[in-house]
Amino acid sequence: MHLRKAARVILIGAPGVGKGTQSERLLHRFPQLSSISSGDLLRHNVKQRTPLGIKVESTMKAGGLVPDDLILRLINNELNQRGWLYSSHPAGNVMTLASCAAETQSFSNDADMAAFISSPAHARGYGSPSEDPSASFLLDGFPRTTAQAERLDETIPINMVVSLKTPLEVIMERISGRWVHEASGRVYNTTFNPPKVAGRDDVTGEPLVRRADDSEEVYRQRWKKFEETSEPLLEHYARKGVLWEVEGMSSDEITPKLMRQFERRFAE
């Protein structure tokens, strides 16, 4: 299925609702769609020892949170590298992960870097996003708050936000049957994806375990926290006119609804 215009999409859903499953199915259905993860970008820059990566690493080692401006900078750079974010610089798209100022130059101190990454997008050479279908992506891990969404709006106007909803009790039942092979990350469920031998990994035969955060008490706390933080974020995107909500008892029930809506908005 081919897209006719750029899709800039965010999926929002409580832990266990199947956000990863829906992302994989969208990426498979629409080859022009890419996944951009803020976590992956952070890890890439730390591994490559870029100036921004070094800043991220030092912040995390000190127990601090990575500033929103820095994450936005990394996302903008990634889109620019791919040619998906037009530059306001007269020379065109000159700022990329490999060549942007924040990654090739050194800053004399933290204040200089902070001033650079928090400066307005246009001052750093960023213009408008490409509407070419090949510039389509699912953004994962960011934004998580309304403040982050407002900053993202400055350079990357998201044009579809999907709110995935499944009743709490259904997710609780799903989680209660979940078992994991720690070494590989393979996940089983006694209800709909059981291992061939109870309690054993299909590939290695090694024992399966329950994750600590799969307990009912822990999950209910995570659900409550998600509801508190996601509500204002969803309201922000509702005001923008880009929010679409879909509900189902399972991922297989949600997927066809999501695909139809996605095709209606972006596909030929």
From TrEMBL:
This is GTP:AMP phosphotransferase, mitochondrial. The gene is ADK2. CDD domains: ADK. The keyword Kinase applies. It comes from Triangularia verruculosa. Monomer. Its main location: mitochondrion. The lineage of its organism: Eukaryota, Fungi, Dikarya, Ascomycota, Pezizomycotina. PANTHER family: NUCLEOTIDE KINASE (PTHR23359). Involved in maintaining the homeostasis of cellular nucleotides by catalyzing the interconversion of nucleoside phosphates. Has GTP:AMP phosphotransferase and ITP:AMP phosphotransferase activities. Residues 177-214 are annotated as: LID. One of its GO terms (molecular function) is ATP binding. The keyword Methyltransferase does not apply. One of its GO terms (biological process) is ADP biosynthetic process.
